[in-house]
Write a structure and sequence with these properties.
The complex is a heterodimer. By secondary structure, chain A is α+β, with helices and mostly antiparallel strands. Helices cover 29% and strands 22% of the residues of chain A. Chain B: InterPro entries: MetI-like, MetI-like_sf.
């Protein structure tokens, strides 16, 4: 009996070993790609979808935006100016009307020509439809309805319901798709006009793109690009060092060296959002005390490895509305303690437990940062308990409707304004009814509404004043730091990251170190 | 034997049912995934519509009843994240985990038998002490730490192996298998050694020797056969652990298996995929338990006789 069992086991073992000697189940094409002709990118996670109207999600946008599909125009991350893409020119012809001249001779990956009808369809699909696109929620107002008027194959006029001086900037988030695309369901693998088209998506393993040989613009250097994903930052860094990947997103400071990475400002700002509806955080003295109790220099220098700048507002330099006059509150624990004592003397329950909610992996050493904040706030006389959460649990606290019966909450947030205009920040984080704001004031709301309708220097000044007012009269946020990202980059390629790189990694901008086109 | 099998099936199926029901209820206690799937500015009406569309607005018992009704029809739902059928995603990922677990256990068993026998043949010798020390160390090493060190040492410093991934030749298997292997291997060496020490000093071994049997025959023909039963039991439990716990290996090395799929499903509150993955894993563990019990009963008549009719 035993010998019979043993022989069967051995037979099964032989089959398994022979069958598995080379090929891993469900990985028919492998995942690394050949160095040289393939640009190899390692991401932190697999995109859930490549649907263009979800491109404001980092994991989707980093693959899709301006690689597979393209918008009419795009914002230059360095200058902040809009530059032509599928539109060659645009102008405001009336307070609620913008006209766009579209590029001729552009075709989609499926061979269908790109026309104004496709542009109108794409905007309508992303903004006006019931698809519930993230780009709609992030970029356009809830009740915004756009009316499109096609004026020829290359002429498009867009009508807004109210004056919108930054409509072209908003439209830079809307990726163009052919008018044969579904309007009732999101697509997983889209057709676009970009320099690369989807060749294959091996779920769980890799996404491969091939160069669009009919691309209207400059020919990308690499015939193929392949994305893989590794959740562990140490492995992403090791892949760069080892030469298994050319680019790797979001490395940790401890894994980064001058040889395998480059730091860049990524437009992200970290802050504590204080729930002003709950005692003791409903007292502005307590909120101001928290601002003074935080040692930003210490956190930036020690925990963030110097890859950040102490912050005094929710947007970094380069975003319209950034206020250069605002300075981060100095670390002054004694003054913080005095304010807390003053509030306590007036009956504010300063010993009530405050829950500091932070998101795992939101940025490197986020847990240690939360611990430092807890210690510093305790030194000021507050009772703080840390609650680490995953993304879904953190979103429960981040977005309206907020959870009830959870007491006072200080939420550690990281806000990235990739659109480059303070309107996208204030509407979400500062308005009293903003989806990510716990409270505000009617005065601040009115100032935000007025600023939204301004253009040019007046717009800049109005939003700069709003950020100053937040700090002075609302103090919902204790700003921590303007962050910097770390991009892993091998010596075999040349690429200069900019503040948009974390959200849209343009493959066509990557060149081989030796030689040019492949 | 059939009675034994029937009893084992019933006793193993009960935990399976509890696991599936437990995961269903616990997943829903983590909250409605609406925030992950709708835009930031989604209205209350849109949120309500999303909840209604996926049944999240129903009482949990109603949701459970609906789910069980679908499962009976082999409908495991659709992924919220990818819009693909959950069953398809799970069945695609599962073979990669099974491959990994099977190869790992074959190597672990073969190596443990060899080293365990050698160590037990001369107890307290230098070879025995070294193998005991190393196997205890192996059984104690955290797999996450071992995986990262493996990547840094063998991938980056020595450049002998790829850091991760599934393409290429047999070398892609080395680090994932070594990481999965280290703990079961350490445990099995200890078990085989202990069982062999007892077997080699048992009366029947002395009888065999007195009858002139060769040492090879004594060790592998008599002692090992009797030492197999405890080793098989432990190996079965360890195999179940591998199928269930390949999460670290799959996450670190980018292995497209069910462990990684489960973690992603939990983080994304992708309930249909999570439930399908847990169900398939539970069924696999259920079947593995039956197979292990059958092997155990085949090897040891006392086990069969211990089960009342």
């Amino acid at each position: 009996m035993l010998s019979s069992v043993r022989s069967r086991v051995l037979a099964v073992a032989a089959v398994v070993l022979c069958g598995s000697s080379c090929t891993v189940a469900n990985s028919p094409a492998g995942d690394a790609g050949a160095a040289g002709s393939t640009l190899r990118v390692v991401l932190a996670q697999e995109p859930p979808t490549l649907e263009p109207c979800e491109a404001s999600l980092t994991s989707t946008g980093v693959v899709v935006r301006s690689n597979i599909s393209e918008p009419l125009l795009e914002r230059d991350a360095a200058s902040g100016e809009l530059r032509p893409l599928l539109a060659t020119a645009w102008r405001q012809t009336a307070p609620t009307t913008w006209a766009f001249d579209l590029r001729g001779g552009v075709t989609f990956h499926n061979g269908q020509p790109f026309t104004a009808q496709d542009a109108a369809f794409s905007i309508d699909r992303a903004v006006n439809s019931d698809l519930q696109c993230n780009v709609d929620g992030y970029v356009f107002d809830d009740d915004e309805r756009l009316r499109m008027e096609v004026t020829g194959d290359t002429g498009l006029t867009v009508h807004t319901t109210k004056p919108d001086p930054i409509l072209p900037l908003r439209l830079s988030f809307v990726e163009m798709v052919p008018r044969t695309t579904s309007t009732t369901a999101k697509v997983r693998e889209p057709v676009g006009t970009g320099p690369y088209a989807i060749e294959s998506w091996e779920t769980g393993v890799s996404i491969t793109l091939r160069r669009n040989e009919r691309y209207w613009g400059e020919r990308p250097a690499f015939p193929q690009a392949r994305y893989v994903w590794r959740a562990e930052p140490s492995v992403r860094a090791a892949m760069i060092t080892r030469g298994e990947a050319d680019l790797a997103t979001t490395l940790n400071p401890e894994d980064a060296t001058e040889e395998n990475s480059v730091a860049y400002p990524n437009n992200e700002t970290t802050a504590l959002r204080l729930d002003g509806r709950e005692a003791p955080l409903d007292d502005i003295r307590v909120r101001r005390a928290i601002g003074m109790a935080v040692d930003r220099e210490g956190i930036v220098g020690t925990l963030l490895a110097g890859l950040a700048e102490p912050a005094a507002q929710l947007v970094p330099d380069g975003v319209v509305g950034f206020n250069p006059a605002l300075k981060a509150a100095p670390y002054d624990p004694e003054a913080a303690r005095a304010l807390i004592r003053e509030a306590a003397a007036d009956g504010v329950p300063v010993d009530r437990r405050i829950t500091l909610v932070a998101r795992n992996t939101q940025f490197p050493r986020v847990a240690e940062t939360a611990e430092a904040l807890q210690y510093q706030l305790a030194q000021a006389g507050l009772n703080v308990q840390i609650q680490m959460a995953d993304t879904a649990a953190h979103l429960e606290y981040q977005l309206r409707p907020f959870p009830t019966d959870v007491g006072p909450v200080a939420l550690l947030i990281m806000h990235g304004n990739q659109a480059g205009d303070a309107a996208f920040t204030t509407s979400q984080y500062l308005r009293s009814d903003g989806p990510q704001s716990t409270f505000g004031t009617p005065e601040l709301d009115a100032r935000i509404d007025q600023a939204d309708e301004l253009a040019g220097p007046a717009r800049q000044d109005a939003f700069a004043a709003i950020f100053a007012d937040q700090n002075q009269s609302v103090a919902q946020y204790v700003h921590l730091a303007h962050m910097r990202g770390l991009l892993g980059i091998s010596r075999s390629v040349r690429y200069q990251p900019d503040s948009a790189t974390g959200d849209e990694l343009h493959l066509a901008a990557v060149r081989p170190s030796a030689g040019e086109a492949r | 034997m059939l009675t034994f099998l029937r009893k084992r099936v019933v006793s193993s199926a009960i935990p399976l049912v509890f696991v599936v029901l437990g995961v269903f209820c616990l997943a829903r206690l983590t909250g409605n995934p609406v925030n992950l799937y709708l835009p930031l500015s989604a209205t209350a009406e849109q949120r309500a519509a999303f909840s209604a569309e996926h049944g999240f607005d129903q009482p949990i018992l109603v949701q459970l009843w609906d789910y069980l009704g679908q499962v009976i029809q082999l409908d495991f739902g659709t992924s919220l994240r990818t819009d693909q059928p959950a069953a398809e995603m799970v069945l695609t990922a599962f073979p990669a985990t099974l491959q990994l677990a099977a190869v790992t256990m074959l190597i672990a068993v073969a190596g443990a038998v060899l080293i365990g026998c050698l160590a037990a043949y001369r107890p307290n010798s230098l070879a025995d002490r070294v193998s005991s020390f190393l196997s205890m160390t192996a059984a104690s090493i955290p797999d996450f730490w071992f995986a990262i060190m493996g990547v840094l040492v063998f991938g980056v410093s020595l450049e002998w192996l790829p850091t991760s991934g599934v393409s290429g030749g047999p070398e892609v298997w080395v680090l994932p298998i070594a990481t999965l292997l280290i703990r079961p291997f350490g445990v099995l060496v200890q078990v085989v050694r202990g069982a062999m020490v007892a077997a080699l000093s048992a009366p029947y071994t002395k009888v065999a020797r007195s009858k002139g049997a060769s040492e090879k025959r004594v060790v592998f023909g008599h002692a090992l056969r009797n030492a197999t039963t405890p080793a098989l039991t432990v190996a079965g439990d360890l195999t179940i652990g591998l199928v269930n716990g390949a999460v670290v290996v799959e996450t670190i090395f980018g292995w497209p298996g069910i462990g990684k799929l489960m973690i992603d499903s939990i983080l994304q509150r992708d309930f249909a995929v999570l439930q399908a993955a847990v169900l398939l894993t539970a069924i696999t563990i259920f079947l593995l338990n039956i197979v292990i019990d059958l092997c155990y009963a085949l090897l040891d008549a006392r086990v069969r006789q211990a089960v009342p009719a």
